Amino acid sequence: MSNTGKMQRGTTVHLKSPEEIAVMREAGRIVALAHQAMRAAVKPGVTTAELDKIAETVIRDNKAIPAFLGYPKHGAPDYPGTINASINNELVHGLPGKRALKEGDIISLDVGCIYDGFVGDAAFTMGVGEISPAIQRLLDVTEQALYVGIKASVLPNETKHVSLAIQEYVSKFGYSLAREYTGHGVGRHMHEEPQVPNWWPKGARQRGFISYKLQPGMTYAIEPMVIAGRAETRELDDKWTVVTRDGSLCAHFEHTIAITGGEPIILTVL
């Protein structure tokens, strides 16, 4: 689940021990199992509530609990589902419910779980049935942007180098990046420091952006949110669902990773 970028900046980054990272790896494996089950179920006619139930069952069957269910947000009701199910021009935080998927839709599915006190968090976007080559290109660029960010997550880089790598890659294709929603630290809480924006503007420090030096034991979620049109978004009256202001399609991919002295470890895989 993406962060709004409104959390307090400059607070402590909690480095994880190898033992804690091992627990997070299991939380991530459970999230990956939920992804696998939802991917297999996505087809025209399936409702987002059915996908939500599939994810919740996988999580609970693996002795974890849904991280999103009941998640608090100021000025909004607690989050009512296990997953974010965001369709077409819905960027993030789409509420699961009675909506049935249609041929040619794209759906972003974001899920988190808590296992033994630690969070796993990851997301993907996929087509429902057949989608056009242009839409598939949007999904492919977004997914590759995630791996570009992961590749940049090595010493002696800082978090701004991750942001810049994603921004430079996506801009080559003429797409926009969501600016108000960011990657974030993950650990005992779903949203921790460091924040990991998907862009890094000129005058970033003056605008309140903080770049953290990467250290072994850092754990964070990278989650490019790429928009086919303009970057502006708005929140719907449900106080959760975020849509593109111009109605353009968007995609979202996310992994939680751990920083090491070498290559980062992707925690949210099987």
Fold topology:
Layout: H1 18-41, H2 48-61, E1 65-66, E2 83-87, E3 90-92, E4 106-115, E5 118-127, H3 133-151, H4 159-171, E6 176-177, E7 183-185, E8 192-196, E9 219-222, E10 225-227, E11 233-235, E12 242-244, E13 250-252, E14 255-258, E15 265-266
Antiparallel strand pairs: 1-4, 2-4, 3-12, 4-5, 6-10, 7-8, 7-9, 9-14, 10-13, 11-12, 14-15
Largest sheet: 5 strands, antiparallel
**What is the approximate shape?**
globular
Count of beta strands:
15
In percent, how helical is the residue content? 25-40%
Polypeptide structure, described:
By secondary structure, the protein is an alpha+beta fold. The protein has a single domain (18-266), classed as Alpha-Beta Complex (Creatine Amidinohydrolase). The chain is 26% helix and 23% strand. It is built from four helices and 15 strands. The protein has helices at 18-41, 48-61, 133-151, 159-171, and strands spanning 65-66, 83-87, 90-92, 106-115, 118-127, 176-177, 183-185, 192-196, 219-222, 225-227, 233-235, 242-244, 250-252, 255-258, 265-266. The strands form four sheets. The protein has a five-stranded antiparallel β-sheet. Helix 1 (18-41) runs antiparallel to helix 2 and helix 3 (133-151) packs antiparallel against helix 4 (159-171). The longest helix is centred in the N-terminal third of the chain and has 24 residues, at 18-41. The model has no long low-confidence stretch (mean pLDDT 96).
